[in-house]
Amino acid sequence: xxxxxxxxxxxxxxxxxxxxxxxxxxxxxxxxxxxxxxxxxxxxxxxxxxxxxxxxxxxxxxxxxxxxxxxxxxxxxxxxxxxxxxxxxxxxxxxxxxxxxxxxxxxxxxxxxxxxxxxxxxxxxxxxxxxxxxxxxxxxxxxxxxxxxxxxxxxxxxxxxxxxxxxxxxxxxxxxxxxxxxxxxxxxxxxxxxxxxxxxxxxxxxxxxxxxxxxxxxxxxxxxxxxxxxxxxxxxxxxxxxxxxxxxxxxxxxxxxxxxxxxxxxxxxxxxxxxxxxxxxxxxxxxxxxxxxxxxxxxxxxxxxxxxxxxxxxxxxxxxxxxxxxxxxxxxxxxx
Length: 336
Fold this sequence. Notes:
By secondary structure, the protein is α/β, with parallel strands linked by helices. Helix content is 28%, strand content 39%. The chain has 2 domains: 2-113; 123-323, no CATH class. It has 5 helices and 23 strands. Strand 2 (77-84) and strand 3 form a beta hairpin. The N and C termini lie far apart (69 Å).
């Protein structure tokens, strides 16, 4: 009897142990399955989010990119992207599949408008060495004008602004009497002010380059339009440029080098010419700039003849800030 009792006890204990082992094994399998499922769900979510990020970058490089883009592979899965809506309310929907799981992420975005810093003169020069050779019937006017030449609504600003009193005195002393009377704006005639800008114009220029609509090489351009009043654009010139003849533009023009303007070239908006060393600006003919012009360089040489005009225009600058959208996006809503 004792032997049978021991067998019964051993069998009972074995059954209990086996049950515990099976339960542990079952729990382990369930835990493993849960971990695998969690991984697959998470991976699908990461792939969907990656799709949004990838196409935001592609849209930065191609402003016209919209539509349906299928079967993009990443991280062992795939995603489809749909892009639709106007620039003011773009929607990017990314649907990802990883093994047995599907996940959708949706971002609502809008392109940011470009930022136009406060303008402190019709012509602003930032340089440690400034040279002038101004002749002819040159007009530099800080009184606000509309793009058609009529009076604008804003208060006058200086015709020319420089960084130091020494530069201001140099400009005034170098101006011939006839030219001196043609530099108008705030503060009397000639309207030359010392107003160091707190703006890093080189960084501003580089931000515009990042968002440029058109990039053109160094060279001579006698025809063509670099943006219109209805559709102004950011134009980046990679080196020295000569703009002559019937060429015209609207928007922002950034020149990484010397700028020459001749003939009847007209531009509405903001021009920035900058470089690491010397910047030369040569103006001849009957061209006109409505907006503002900025020169930034270790040395700046300004040479002008003919009937060239530099007019401050708040209308032209507002056209830029109200109509040109950057390549940067602001995410207004995110759902996943």
